Amino acid sequence: MNICSEEKFIISLLFSEEIMDKKSVSKLNLEILIKILSQHLIIPLFYYKICKKNLLNFFPKDFTNYTKKIYEINKKRNIHLKKEVEKINHLVNQNSMEIIFLKGSAMIFSQIYSDLGIRMIGDIDFLIKSNDIKKIENTLELNGYTELSDYDFFYPVRHLNRRVNKNKIFAIEPHIYLTNKKIINPNLIFEKKINSNVNTPSKLIMLKHNIYNFMINDRALSKFTYSYRSIYDTFLLLENIPEEKIQNDELVLNYISAMKYLGIKHKKFTKTENNLYFYKFKFLNNSKNTYLVYLTVLKFCEKIKNK
């Protein structure tokens, strides 16, 4: 497996019960480690895990102080996120509309994470009904949420233009569909929603959206990339879902194949056989030069297709 020792440490820390000692920490290149953590948006999660596994004192003080600061900032952001989500929810309810919050917001309100500071979140995403588009746009505009662009790059494929409010921390994205390929029926999401303080999708829809979003919208399926933040979300969500609900889903199985290559095992997939995606993923990730050539060819093909 062609991944560095820093990544192997991250995998063990996040996804196994393996006992780690000071010797394993002393071998790490902290510059490489923090770069990987930043790329995968998991610095707060890393800090939480080293505290929970009593590894904090094995790292240099300046390193732990930095990761702690990021964790604390992220926790404050997520406290604000909860307030902003509740205000948006109240706003649309007042105007006789219904929305379902997605992605990180749904993870927070579904209490998938054991600590509010762990999950890094960029925007507030929520699903709207297609017949509410104009009403949602007018409501948001009247309440200070303005479009970042006049161009409807995604409309009507996946979501309306991103909006910001100068008095709020988080941008918002109202979705019509969950993915560029319309493989999850929005009506089904509303039918199966979970209603607590705010509406969230069912755990199964949350899992599929997390995987489909990364594999399709973020193009991991063609680029053979991976994200530890996305994998950790998947790992937690799998705890709530019977295996038979996902064992025939090709995209889910491809995603699990990438996890298996990385050495990330989940008890619900211990018997899953390696598929074609696993071997493609392994081949490209074992050879940096081959992978760079592959990306160049892929980019060229996409240019031709776009033209």
Mind explaining what this structure looks like?
With 307 residues, this protein is mainly alpha-helical. Helix content is 53%, strand content 6%. It contains 14 helices and seven strands. The chain has helices at 5-15, 22-26, 30-39, 43-52, 61-94, 103-109, 133-142, 186-191, 203-217, 220-223, 228-237, 250-261, 276-285, 288-306; strands at 100-101, 124-127, 146-147, 163-164, 172-175, 194-195, 199-200. Strands 1-2-5 form a three-stranded mixed beta sheet. A two-stranded antiparallel ribbon has the order 3-4. A two-stranded antiparallel ribbon has the order 6-7. A hairpin with a 3-residue loop joins strand 6 and strand 7. Helix 4 packs across helix 5, helix 9 (203-217) packs antiparallel against helix 11 and helix 12 (250-261) runs parallel beside helix 13. The longest helix is centred in the first third of the chain and has 34 residues, at 61-94. It is globular. 31% of the residues are buried.
